[in-house]
Amino acid sequence: MVELFSYPAFFYTMALVLGLCLGSFYNVCVHRYLVGASVIRPGSHCPACGHVLSWWENIPVLSYVLLGAKCRSCKGKIHWRYPAVELLSGILALLFAVKFGPTAQWLTYMVFLGIFLVAAFIDLDSFILPDVLTYPAAILALSTPLFLPVDWLETMLGGLCGAGIFLLLQQAYLRLRGIDALGTGDIKLMLSLGALVGLSLLPLMILLSALCALAIAVVYLRRPEGQGLRTAIPFGPFLCLGAVLTLLWGEDLLLMIMNL
Predict the structure, then answer these.
(1) What does the pLDDT look like over 19-52, one tens digit per residue?
(2) For residue range 92-149, what is the model confidence (pLDDT) as tens digits?
(3) Which of 97, 155, 157, 244 has most Cβ atoms within 10 angstroms of its Cβ?
(4) Closest alpha carbon to 148 in 140, 160, 139
(5) What are the tens digits of pLDDT across the range 76-87?
């Protein structure tokens, strides 16, 4: 079985399938955190009517299509978040598999991808980045030099500078505008994100996060039902996206920018 992982096509396929299946579990974590329910019990069921899902109703993405985005029992609409999380989890698992291969780095980043996907979608819905996710992520990220080929100084300074910059931004915005534009959850999240990308790639990660957030903000500002410049947009998902892009292609992007 171990020898099969030496074949790229097999490993990539397994990574994709694993990512899709994990995405189904991440959906459970997101939904049950938002409603204050246990992640362990009960089993998978329709949030509207309590219908217990059969095995074929639990197939990532495919079940959503087969069911027509509706519960088989009550015909209630299935939230778009379910296939979105599953697809993102599968695609990211595949991209990181292509980048790092069957290594300890891939396994480690899979853990972080799960934490960041759950945190991002909770933040999108509630504007909250739970401590139960941000604290373990920070501890694990700052410890990565113990089991990954990364530099201690880069990791520690990346985490501390990332969190420190956002703390300063939060306090500056509070003093100038009297608005808490950056929550403490973003600061805690930056401990892990900064540690993962390292000090040298931290500015690029922040830039990518800001550009992604700006692109979405423009869409929000154009919505007639929006609140103009006071429209609240969670920043956590964009920080996670910026970190993922940096881990995948940061060095290439930085080299391209320097050449320009």
Answers:
(1) 999 999 999 999 999 999 888 887 888 888 878 8
(2) 999 999 999 999 999 999 999 999 999 999 999 999 999 999 999 999 999 999 999 9
(3) 244
(4) 140
(5) 898 999 999 999
If asked whether residues 90 and 176 sit together in one domain, one would say: no
Last residue in a domain, options 75, 101, 127: 101
Are residues 80 and 183 located together in one domain of the fold? no
Domain boundary among 76, 101, 126: 101
Per-residue model confidence (pLDDT) at position 39: 86
- Amino acid occupying residue 189: L
Q: Find the domain containing 159 and state its range.
A: 103-260
Residue 236 near residue 123, CB atoms below 8 Å? yes
Query: What does pTM read for this prediction?
Result: 0.91
How would you class 50 by CB atoms within 10 Å of its CB: exposed for 0-12, middle for 13-18, buried for 19 or more?
Answer: exposed
Shared domain check, 151 and 38: no
Residues 115 and 97 in one domain: no
Task: Tell me the DSSP string of 89-116.
Answer: HHHHHHHHHHHH-SSHHHHHHHHHHHHH
- Distance, in Å, from the CA atom of 5 to the CA atom of 26, rounded to the nearest integer, reads 25
Adjacent-strand bridge partners of 196: none
